[in-house]
Each structure stands twice: as C-alpha cells, then as structure tokens.
Amino acid sequence: MSTLAVHDHGVVHHEEGHEHHHKATFLNTYVFSQDHKYIAKQFLVTGIIMAFFAMVLSILFRIQLAYPDKTFPFLTTLLGHFAPNGRISADFYMSLVTIHGTIMVFFVLTAGLSGTFANLLIPLQVGARDMASPFVNMLSYWFFFAASIVMLSSFLVEKGPASGGWTIYPPLSALPKAMPGSGMGMTLWLISMVLFIASQLMGGINYISTVLNMRTKGMDLWKMPLTVWALFLTAVLGVLSFPVLVAGVVLLIFDRSFGTSFYLSDIVLNGQVQPYEGGSPILFQHLFWFLGHPEVYIIIMPAMGLSSEVLAVNSRKPIFGYHAMVYSLIGISVLSFIVWGHHMFVTGMNPFLGGVFMITTLIIAVPSAVKTFNWLATLWRGNIRFTPAMLFAIGMVSFFISGGLTGIFLGNAALDINLHDTYFVVAHFHLVMGSAAIFGMLAGVYHWFPKMYRRMMDERLGYLHFWLTFIGAYLVFFPMHFMGLDGVPRRYYAFTEFESMKRWLTVNVFITWAAIMAGIAQLAFAYNFIHSIFWGKKTVQNPWNANTLEWTAPIEHIHGNWHGEIPTVYRWAYDYSKPGHDEDFIPQNVPFSQTMSSNLPHDFEDNPAGLEEHAKWVDAQKANVAVK
Amino acid sequence: MMMAQIQQQEDRLNLGAKKFNMWIFIFTSILLFMGFMSGFIVYVGGRGHGLQVILPGAFRYSTAVIALSSITLLMAKRAAKGLQVDKQRLFLWLTIFLGIAFFAIQIYAWYVLTFEDRIFFSNPNAARSFIYVFSGVHLLHVIAGLLVLLNTVVATYRNIPQVRNIFKMEMASIFWHFLDIMWICLYVFLLLNQN
Question: What DSSP designation does A488 have?
Fold first, then answer.
C-alpha cells in the first residue's frame, strides 16, 4: 500500500493528466493557450505595447511642461479637442499624468513584469510541467488584456480619461461632476482596475501554489534561485494587498453610483451643497495605501530577483550572501505592510502615529542596504561579461541606490512636510521603482529572450539602447530633485503662472529634450525585439552557461517543458567558478558524484553518507599525491 | 488500497496544487472582508458614528440555515467517500436548497432593514451602509458557492472517475464551509458593534 502512495511524478507525462486529449488548434495554441511559456510571451508583448503607450503620454505632457506658452498644431491634429489651438488642455494634462502613472505602475511594472517572468520562470526554474492550474493562468492573461483595452478605451470618451491622479483620491474620483475626467473616464478606470485585480489574483494564486507544491525532486526552498524567491514573495504580497484595494474600490463605486457616504462629507459642488454627510476621505487613503505601498514592492522585487540572477551569471560568481538575500526579501515583504502611513504624513495624522510609520519606513533601509551590498559584492572581482542584460542589471542597482537614498529623506515625517507632493517625490520614485524596475525588466528580457523566442537579441543595439536609456533617465530625473527642494509641486499644468517657479522653465526644457532622447532610444529596443523574434541569431541550449533548470529544457517549446523525466536538483543555483571544476559553472541537475574534484565538505551538510564518500575520495587523492 | 490509488491519481492530476489554489483564494476573500471590517473600524473610530441599529431577526434564521447547510454538505461528502452516489446527490441538492434559502432570507433581511426599520443603504451614517456591504459582498460569494455546488452535483450525473468526484466535493466543501464561517464572523462582528 505504501509503495503505491509513493509517487514518481517525474515519469508521468503531463498530457496523460488530462481527461481528454486536447487537439492543438490555432485558437488553443496561439490565442487561448494554456502553456505558461506562451502566456509569458503574451504578458510581455502586451506589457511592452502598454509601456510604449505610457511613454508617448509622458512625452506629450513633457512638451506642455517645457513649452507652456507655445502652440504645436500637430497636437491638435493628434489629440483633437483634447488639445485645442495646439496646446494640451489643462484637464487633458491631468488625464495624461493619471493614465501614465496607472499604466506604468499596474499594467507595465506589475502585470508586464511579474506576469511575464513569473509565468516563464516559475515552472521552468522549479522544474514543473506547467502552473498548478493552467486554465486559471490563461484567464489571468485575458482578464489583463480586457483591463488594458478598457483602460485605453477611456481615451475615446468625450470628456477624456480619469484625471484625479493614479491614486484616485475621493472626493475628486467619487463625484462624477467634480471634473471632466471624473465622469465616464473614471468609471472606465474603475472597471479596468476590477478586471486587473481579478487577473492579478488569479495569477498570484497560481504562482504561490506552483512554487509550494510542484517543485521537482531535490528542489527544496533553499535551492531555489533568487528569481523564484522574489517572484514567489511578490505573488504573496499581491494576494495579501489587492483584496484590500478591492474593498476600497467597491466602497468608492457605491459612493459614486449609489449615493452612500463612505468617503464623502461636507461637499459643495458648483455652489450647491451636496447631501453627503459623515464620510471620511482619509478612510480611502488608508485602504488605498495599504495596497499601494506593498504595490511598490510588487514592482521592485521581481526586478531585484531578475537582477540578482543576471548579476551572478554574468559575474561568473555565486551570488554574495544567498541566505541574506532571501531574508532581506522576506524582511521587505513583511515591512511593506506596516509603512503605508508614510504616504499620509500631511493628512493631519496624529504626529505620534507619524513617528511610528517613520520608524518602520526607515527600517526598510536595512534589508535594502543588505541587497545593495550583496549585489556590489557579487560584482567585486568577478569575471564580468558585459552582456546587455548585465548592463541593465547593473543599471538597476545604480538606480536603486540613487533613488533609494532620497527615500530616507521622504520617509522622515518632518522633512516630508516640505517635500510632500513636490518634484522631489517624482524624482525619488521614478528612480527607485520606475527606472530601477524597468531596468530589471529589460535585463530579464535580454537575458531570457533566447528562452522565450529561441533566438538571440542583437548585442550592439542592446548597448546603444542601454547607454541612451541609462543616461537619459538620469538626465530626466536628477534635476527634478532640485526643483522639488525649491518647492515646485508635482501635477501642475504650467509653472509660468507662478513668479517663484518661472526660473525652472529652462530646466523643464532640458528634461523634456532628455526625455525625448530616451524615448527615441526605445525604438532601438523595439526594432531589436521584433527583428530578433523573426531573424535573430539562433540560440544554443544554454547561451549564458547558466546553472538554473530552464536551460536544461530543450530549445524548442514543448507542452510539459521536458521530454521524459524532469531533471532532479542536487545543488543550489550558484555554483559558478567553483574551484577544482573544469568549467566555470555546474548546473543544478549535476549530482555531486560527478564533480568529486570540486566538492567541499559543506556541500554535504545534511548528507552524512555523501560526506563520508567525500572524505574517502579526499584521502585517496592525498594517497595518490604521496605515491607520486 | 483504494485510498492509496486515489492518492496516486490525485498526484498525477495535480489536484493537490489545485486544492491549494482554493485555499489561497479563500485567503484573499478573508482579506477582502478584513478590508471592509477595518474600514468599518476606522470609520466608526474616526467619525464617532456608531451603528446603533437592532439587526433584523432574519439574520438569526439565515445563520441557522447556512450552518445547517454545512452539515448537509458534510453528509454529502461522507456519502461520496462511501461511493453512495444517490445519498451524495440528495445531500448536495439539500445543501443547494438551503443555500438558496439563505440567499432569500438575507434579501428579506434587507427588506426589513429598508422598509420597516428605515435604515437605508445610502445613509449619512456610513456605518449603517456597511451592513449592506458586508452582507451584499457575502451574497456575491454565495452565488459563486452555489454555482460550485451545482457544478459538483451535475458532475455526479455524468460518469466521472471517483477521484474527480472526490476532488470536486472537496473543492466545494472548502469553499462552502468558508462561506458559512465567514457569515458567522460577519454577523458576530456586527452584533459586537451594534452600539
């Protein structure tokens, strides 16, 4: 009886698991595919398209900021009544800022980033045939797709998209008549977000379950690559925080459409007193930021995981402090739930409570610094290969440091009174979670492109893309610190209206041109990406000489990932340049018995028999040397 | 011997991982309700509004009905494990019936609240609106739960393998018992905050 219960899931081929054999049709192969590798590509391509869209929006509002008094007839041609007489209207400017933020935060850096890489890497790196529930996984993508379409469609309604900022604070968002963007545009925003959250929850549930239940033989948690750790913890954060956003959004919908007063009180609209009483707009901020703060870690943690992997592979060194890296990820995950108040220091919060949130916020500097130190120590005296992916991973570390430093200023409740809602905040988060996460994502795209599309991307275009983007991002965001210190507020339409801010106009012109340059640089990426999919150089099975399991899978994609048995894992993912071995990498599925010359006593911590064999082998070697 | 075989087939079909999915989903639902509850606490604490409502007696009956439905579901599961398909079907239909009854009683409670107690959903005291939010969002879950139960009972009329039958029963049980417990929690929460 007990022998029956012991199950060797490696031998069973996935296809047998289905009740019926599905026939491969065009629809279930290329559209409603349930294969995690294909869904990853769907997420990536949709994410990239959304990113380009958001980038164009940002360049539009940058034009307005640089040239508030000039007219550009092409804007009217492009945008119609949103830009009458060649100038973007003030209302549409607000919409641009709002939708740029929403798309980048949710659609690109949440779904595009962890959707792509969690789908691609979790099953391949833990050694599973597919996700726990491939069907739900497919639904996750199509909900995301529908959310994207609804979000973009808000540009087609007459009064324009939502315009209350990506944080959609009531009362602006709760009163359809408050401003043009609060009408139909806001409704579409809410519909889109509900679909989006459903997509994220379905995805996240699958990622967690797959990591916990479907690892291959030998793959214990402490043998998982840091990518899987990061994507796993990201999914946990999403599952914990998105439902709370649903609660906040549901109450907002009731306030908008059913006349309740959860968030509304004492409102006078166009000279008319509104019937709402007793609501609290601060309640929404609490519910929103309880999601919102973990959300920024949902964005950055996958980038951290991808960069850790890329840095170790291309430094040809084990990641420095693997356990510390995991514990700092866990630390960041836990802390992310008790810091949300630092977004609300100036809402009239009790200063004592502000002090508590300040302390928890500043503690995050500790795990962040551990990670930064370990990345730098991984690079230290490594045998570095500067592939485009490696450059982007180093860029990610750079942005994380330079953006993270200003977080210490902003997390301080006293300093925040001065800096809140200024360009200092804009500079901070665009560096630490915007640029850093985008660079992590691009590092991932360059590194795993051969796994996804079976071809290599062009290196020289990659270098061009990297340097222009890296320099461009610093040129755009660094000057914003000084604007913010001078008190220039974010989200303003035209600074020429204010005497004290007029002098910043030249800086705005500079930033806008830097942004346009960085934007054009992305065309190099787009060309490289599309061209390489069809005409890139064909890849070998393990182009980067990496250790993780995905490179042991065949180049051609098969449903079920591996022919025959799934490889068994014997060692961690970071045996690079191990002394005594003839190559500078040892894949995770190579047993210690095949690498006697490079084994170390601590490789056998939980394995006394192995340790004995190792000791015997070492003695035999010593005897040989003595005989010679 | 049979248990071992079912265990083996479960592994092959990845059913363990799928069951785990359900548990995580329930976890997200709990967080959703906790979001509402903490919203309620923050609202009541911050604004000095209390609920100050005597909850309709119908809630007591609906609580009893949904608790009873959990018991019938347990019986159905026991029958399924004993391969007594007729008994399984009977108890499943009974559970569905009790679920629909719960639904109806909740709607009746809303009717009492609105038309007899004059406590409206759109209310200047949003603490009172929360009664509708708690029970309404829970009812949305109940609709989903009824669909899951229906799917399970329909499957018994098709000749599906026992391992799938048990799996469907377990998925439905996890979800339905959760709905039961969640409602009791919400009701107790409202009762405790009645003043």
Answer: P
Task: Give the CA distances from residue A183 to residues A158, A266, A620, B6, B131, in Å, rounded to whole numbers and listed in that order.
Answer: 10, 20, 81, 55, 28
Task: Give the C-alpha separation, A584 to A592, whole Å.
Answer: 15
Residue A614 near residue A604 (C-beta atoms within 8 A): yes
CB–CB of A278 and B49 under 8 A?
yes
So what's the pLDDT on residue B43?
86
Sequence spans of domains, chain A: 30-535, 549-627
pLDDT digits (tens, 9 = 90+) for A460-473: 999 999 999 999 99
Interface residue A282 vs chain B (CB under 8 A): yes
Of A366-370, A429-433, B53-57, the range with the lowest mean pLDDT is B53-57
User: Looking at this protein, which amino acid is placed at residue A524?
Assistant: A
Domains in chain B: how many in total? Answer: 1
Cis amide bond preceding A171, omega within 30 = yes
Phi, psi of A422 (to 5 degrees): -105, 180
Q: How far apart are CA B147 and CA A487, in angstroms?
A: 56
* Residue span of the structural domain in which B98 resides: 2-192
Nearest by CB: B7 against A5, A204, A275 = A5
A493 pLDDT above the threshold of 50? yes
Q: In terms of Cα–Cα distance, which of A337, A336, A332 is closest to A305? A: A332
**A 229-248: CB under 8 A from B:** 239-240, 242-244, 246-248
- What tokens does B68 get? 């009873």
CB atoms B35 and A287 under 8 Å:
yes
Give DSSP secondary structure letters for A305-368.
Answer: HHHHHHHHHHHTSPPTTHHHHHHHHHHHHHHGGG-GGGG-TTTT--HHHHHHHHHHHHHTHHHH
| Six token digits for residue A382 | 């490594």
Residues of B in contact with A285 (CB under 8 A): none
CA distances from A619 to A343, A578, A597, A606, A615 (A): 62, 20, 12, 21, 6
H-only helix segments in chain B: 2-12, 15-47, 58-81, 85-111, 126-157, 162-192
Residue A627: its H or E element: helix A608-627
Q: Which helix (H) or strand (E) holds A242?
A: helix A226-257
Q: DSSP code of A598? A: G
Residue of B nearest to A236 (CA): B24
Q: Is A279 on the interface with B (CB under 8 A)?
A: yes
B163–chain A nearest CA distance, Å: 12
CB contact under 8 A, B129 and A254: yes
CA distance A571 to A588: 5
A30-535 under CATH 3.40.50.1000, yes or no = no
DSSP annotation of A594: G
Residue A211's H or E segment, with its range, is helix A184-213
Q: Do A424 and A406 contact (CB within 8 A), yes or no?
A: yes
Shortest alpha-carbon distance between residue A338 and chain B (Å):
14
What is the per-residue pLDDT across A16-59, written as a single tens digit (0 to 9) for each? 444 445 677 888 888 899 999 999 999 999 999 999 999 999 99
pTM to 2 decimal places = 0.92
Report the C-alpha gap between A175 and A158 in whole angstroms.
17
The gap between the terminal CA atoms of chain B, to the nearest Å, is 57
Best probe of the B interface among A194, A283, A338, by most B CBs < 10 A, is A283
Task: Give contacts of A 153-212 with B, CB under 8 A.
Answer: 201, 204-206, 208-210, 212
Rounded to an integer, what distance in angstroms lies between the CA atom of residue A225 and that of residue A309? 7
Q: What is the CATH number of the domain that holds B98?
A: 1.20.120.80
- CA of residue A306 relative to chain centroid, distance: 10
**B38, HSE (Cβ side, Cα atoms, 13 Å):** 17
CB-closest option in B1, B20, B28 to A212:
B20
A412: helix, strand or coil: coil
* Residue type at A525 in one-letter notation: F
